[in-house]
Amino acid sequence: MVWEVLKEALDRQVKTTGRRSLDVLDSGGGSGNFAVPVARLGHRVTVVDPSPNALFALERRAAEAGVADLVTGVQGDALGLFDVVDRGAYDAVLLHGVLEHMDDPAEGSPASPPPCAPRAPSACSPPDSAGPSSPVHW
């Protein structure tokens, strides 16, 4: 279900921007469960994750899928996100499975200063009963 919602949101954003491919930020994207399928759609994806092992797995997974040129891994976390990515540089933001690992989830939520362009979709997973795969808003 999350994939269908994500794909629809990306398709809408492609129409909104008039561009064939988007710049997508996947904060806490780990080994690329979302990043690689998004890259297969032709979008450029930057994954920010604190784990070097996850980023190594991301690199391998992207290469195996033939999208290594569209996926970039950056070591960092949600609290220091703007230390490693530029504000306003992304057309869409993913934040799945991150907030439940934070002491103060509000600090890392998409409500904080956005790393994406105005009116860009974002999706996150709340640290509650909705579960790690439930998008809260687009």
Structural key phrases:
disordered C terminus, five-stranded parallel beta sheet, 138 residues, globular, 4 helices, alpha/beta
Write up this protein.
This protein is α/β, with parallel strands linked by helices and 138 residues long. It has four helices and five strands, in the order αβαβαβαββ. Strand 2, helix 3 and strand 3 form a beta-alpha-beta unit. It is globular, with a radius of gyration of 14 Å.
As residue ranges, the low-confidence spans are 110-116, 124-138
Shape field:
globular
The number of strands is 5
N-end to C-end Cα span = 14 Å
Report Rg: 14 Å
* Largest sheet data: 5 strands, parallel
Average pLDDT confidence is: 78
Beta percentage is 15-25%
Secondary-structure element pattern, one letter each = HEHEHEHEE
**Proportion in helices:** 25-40%
Number of helices: 4
Helix/strand-derived category reads: alpha/beta
- State the strand order across the main sheet: 3-2-1-4-5
